[in-house]
Target: Cytochrome c oxidase subunit 2
Amino acid sequence: MAHPQQLGFQDATSPLMEELLHFHDHALMIVFLISAFVLYIIVAMVTTKIYDKYILDSQEIEIIWTVLPAIILIMIALPSLRILYIMDEVNDPHLTVKAMGHQWYWSYEYTDYEELGFDSYMIPTQDLMPGQFRLLETDHRMVVPVESPIRVLVSAEDVLHSWAVPTLGVKMDAVPGRLNQTAFITSRPGVFYGQCSEICGANHSFMPIVVEAVLLEAFENWLSLSLQDL
Model:
């Protein structure tokens, strides 16, 4: 959950988001080192009056400043490609949920169970209970078991939407007539918030996403109660 004056990312709740945070720190450290080195060179050239003709024209220095950036780019590219391939992997999901975007709400279908589905609307401000978050709470949450691979099929019925939950490291566009898929694993129980991340009309900012990760026993109890209500 984001909080005011937060400078960094939200706490990771999935192994994928942890990998993304590690890569962010890795790349940011390289940027800091390059920035410090360039700043040192600029200050040194401005303040000193001593120069050497071998620095002004040297084959060795030209080789260094050609090869060194290539090595740095490789150090950034290899971890990035690894994470990209991890993000595309969907291995033996224990549960499949279809998220359908509408103007302006989400509907969820648990495709492993017959006729288990519901619409998820934002709770108006005047109906919020104490402790609930404005513009983020929904009347029905997407409930998933913790530490289980979850596949989410994402599509839309009218215009472009985007199903995004930052703390899970998940963001997938919902395109009418097209079925996209993504996957995640929640590493701990909790309630995780997201919002539509594609401008989709007048009420774009009023279609939040709430994912509630619970223990397997609690998920089975919720599942049985939901099936009884059908």
